[in-house]
Amino acid sequence: MTVRPRRDAARRGRDRRAQVLPARPGARRVTGRRPTTAVVGAGIAGLAAATALAERGVAVTLYESRPYLGGRVGGWPTELADGTTVTMSRGFHAFFRQYYNLRGLLRRTDPGLRRLAGLPDYPLRHGGGAHDGFRHVPRTPPWSALGFAALSPSFALRDLRALDPVAALPLLDVRVPEVYARLDDISAHDFLDAVRFPAKARHLAFEVFSRSFFADPRHLSAAEMALMFHIYFLGSAEGLLFDVPREPFPALWDPLGDYLRRHGAEVLTATPAEQITPVADGGHRIVTGQGERSFDSVVLALDTAGLRSLVARSDRLGDAPWRERIARLRNAPPFLVSRLWLDRPVAADRPGFLGTSGFGALDNVSVLERWEDEAARWARRTGGSVVELHAYAVPPQAARDVEQKGLVEQLHRVYPETSTAAIVDARHEWHDDCPLFPVGGHLDRPTVRTPDPRLVVAGDLVRTELPVALMERAATTGFLAADALLEQWGVRGQTLWTVPNRGRTTALRALARWGSG
Question: pTM to 2 decimals?
Answer without folding.
Answer: 0.93
